[in-house]
Amino acid sequence: MVMRWIETPPAINAPAHPPLDALLAARLQLHADRPETPDNAWWSVMLDLRDVSLEDLAAQLPAQDFLIPSVYSPVDRQAAQGRRLVAVFIRHKLLLELNETGRTLGIVAIKDGMIHPDDMIDLDARFVDPTPIQLDKKSVVMAVIDDGIAIANNVFRDGVCSSRVAFSWVMAAGRGHGESAPETIGRSFDKAKIDRYLTQHTYCDLLDEAAFYHETGQIDFQNGEFSPVSLRRSHGTHIAAVAAGHPMEEGLQTRPMICVSLPPRVTADTTGQSSFPAIALALQSLHHQASRFRIGDKPAPVVLNFSFGNYSGPHDGTGEIEALFQQFLDQAGAQVRQLVLPAGNGNLTQTHAEVTFPDDDRKTKTLTLQDPTDDRTATHIQMWMPRTQKAENFVTLSVCPPVGPTSPVLKTDGSGVLSYDLVDEQGMLARLSYSRAPDPIGRGLVTLTLAPNSSLTKNAPTAPAGQWTVAVTPDEIAPPNGAKGLFLPLNSVQVWVRRDETLPGFDPGGRQAQLDDRNYQRFGKYGLPLATDPMGTKSLVRRAGSLSGFACGASPIVIGGAIAKQLEVSPYSASGPITPVSEHADGTDPLTTRTGPNAVARADDSLILSGIISAGSHSGSFVRLSGTSVAAPGIARLLADELSDGLKPDLQKIAGGVTRTGQGFIPVNLHLTNLPYPILEPFGHVDP
Fold first, then answer.
1. Last residue of some domain: 90, 120, 150?
2. Which of 37, 215, 236, 476 could cross-link 393 (Cys pair, CB 3.0–4.6 Å)?
3. Least trusted range by pLDDT, from 109-118, 335-344, 535-544
4. How far apart are CA 300 and CA 289, in angstroms?
5. CB neighbours (10 Å) of residue 39?
């Protein structure tokens, strides 16, 4: 079939502006070429609103196509001052229109999420004021957001039929499960309901866990949803147990839990959807639930662990996810003492590149993307321009597919054609587009989207697999603007490939695209993977700066992974620094000067025994899981213990440090049951 590049046609008739989100526009076009998604389906999206309330926005849109979730109280719906990040549900046709015209309504950015059929949405759900809960004086509330949290596991109980989980929202549960709950998607359960189901399905002091999870909608093979809890090992259970697991026999009363189980499709779908809307809903729900807990007349302290991350985003502390976390912390005030995040596992994935042009270097540089065969999900690459006074016309770009014509030159000054499509008779194969992210990000962004290169659908457009090359030519060199410290260069284009591989346990389909460079050195002289960039490397592909896009803000505690036996950082543990932001449009100081994680904690027992042991999906089972995801909840547990003892821990004070280790190793003791050895033993300090 003949491939050709064309100027991207408008999504609606004669749009006045480019789309708010180029990646969303590409995803909508991919769905248009694959009409398996009905036009009346609901899309969950996160909106970046400025000086407009949810109620005022809803009043200007058709009620049948715009739905405010039940997690927003009447006060939340009426708030209209400044910037607000909110999650809503919008039907396909209206979303297509708002991505083009939303600026006129006070929408400055849109991040798309999951697609929901009608039967998964409860249109009648309403906000219910949470009732207060009194706790003992040494209590600390543990909050967890994850996927597949087996809430009936005995490490989350203080008795055979008594749960420590005071609130659990299962976003993927169907409407027919359990008792009615005021959630627009999924079902929520308070302690009374959980205890009732525990009693109902317990026989001779043994719980029928499969029946319990079917009752709560966490295992339901009839609805076609994948169920992590049905497996021997589930990520959310492992993480929650590290953060808040205790032997049931202890009858612990001072560690109540509140948790949200994200839909498995957020983890499984790598077609370009963002997890931001689901995260926004989870944070809003936990904000209201946390406010229930009191110690006397004061709010009880809360520690939140969220062991998720991503590869994309501006990586400079100004992105929407960083703003969402900060909004949650500002809402909670002094009650949420800490938000703990993992540094990410992208250090060796070859998903980050740095295209730098010194003042004496005017040559075109070529970046290579390897798109593996049999990739049935879309691939997305973000190329962020530097934020300086002279970044308007920094570079020009063109793309050459493995076979077919080279794209026209795309400028990064906002002039000329802003988007090109590679098409054939079946539809769009790739899109190269430029947009400028709104303040406070305020940077140019070039997005390259590749359609799946394999499909089980007849006549679906498929992009050519293989080696895609991006030619980056300097146009106007931006001089350094005085940033200090361990930062990425200011005169560079920072490139990230979004996560694309399908994780174990999910239906196969996605394969991770990687950046390649002949100067990239993967292994050291003894054959082990190199965990840091060699001194003086000329490779465009870098390990430095691979820190998770979720973990670049100033307020959260960010934890990397370490190997306990060898007392060294785990090779996969992502590193800083972040992209520098030393100038803001309003002249204020940078939002963050983070150069890496705050510290590292145990993520692997040894080079041979990867991962750490924690609870499996079913009571009495223990499994291994590795990654910075398992290091972060250990620190959340440590912070809760110190708060319970009346201390005032503040790991933010050690932000900075070294780009991979922060201020070194923090030992944590964890004991879930009578194992022959402790799961986390105290070890010494990791040398930077």
1. 120
2. 476
3. 109-118
4. 12
5. 11
